[in-house]
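Supplementary notes for students who missed Thursday's class. We covered one full example, reproduced here. Read the sequence, then the structure, then the short commentary at the end.
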Amino acid sequence: MMTSTQQSAKDTDTIRQLVTGYQAARALLAADEINLLHHLQAGPKQVSELATATKTHEPTLFRFLRALATIDLVIVKGRQVSKGPLADGLRDAARIGVENYRVWNELPYTLSTGNPAFEKVFGRVFYEYLDNEPEKAERFNTALAAVSMGWISSVLDAVDFTGSNVVADIGGGHGTFLVELLKTNLHLQGILIDQAAVLYSAKAVVESAGVQDRCRMEPANFLKALPDGADLCCLCNLLVDWDDTNANLILRNCHAAMDDEGRILVVDRVLPPTNDPGHRSAAFLDLFFLLMEGGRIRTQEEYQGLFEATGFHLIRTFPVGGGFYVLEGSSG
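Structure (token representation):
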């Protein structure tokens, strides 16, 4: 059993590790910025080769790599460097990393105003920023598509789509979910709704899946109005990006675009209770959405209230893995 002095020392060490956690985070983001792992993809390289490829100062790069090795991003043996056990996870985690890092530095601003710090740092809201950064936008959308592959099969297995005819995927990005839905439900017609630039990239995904004859693409601003004709509206990983005012508006627009027999399917994160093992990561991720976009991860009760306020009846909620849940409702 620890003495009070030993416990105090342990607590101090824990706090020190938490407070200095930004150092490892910034090092990981720097590795992403210099495209380090790309140059290791084909196999191990010498530090001198990496310095040339990444346009970095060789002695400093070696010290940097030595630090990265302690967190399993790379393996350093002498002057040879190879990918570490955690290397493959960096690309998705860092999809908007440097911006995220700068925004978190302005957390006190958000605490004092309730507004997302992203606009303070970059002078525009998050998605306007991506509009002017096509390479980052493409990477961001690709990463979101990869995340969705973790829950798509579970959703398709758990939800009965036989009673639907036309499915609208609101803010559907590259069409990853809608394409899989149409491939496994041959009776369905689909409407992919997003910004015109996003739909341009989605065209190749839809065509390669061979569902272009059953999927039309409609550019639209879902904060203003949605094209009608669908009896099922899907909002996948979308409402988390918006505050309650805009989430309310999106759901009202969905309700207005369908008849009284319509259904809604929300696939999104739900904040688990405090005794759930996933609560800690979800609570910090909730702050991420607040700082970056003004969004939020909602509890089951908050979703219930949002559905009721916009004319929907919440039928059931169930988990599909990775912190995502399905919230299924009706418009009647």
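Commentary. The chain has a mean pLDDT of 92. Residues 156 and 169 are 14 Å apart (CA to CA). If anything here is unclear, bring it to office hours.
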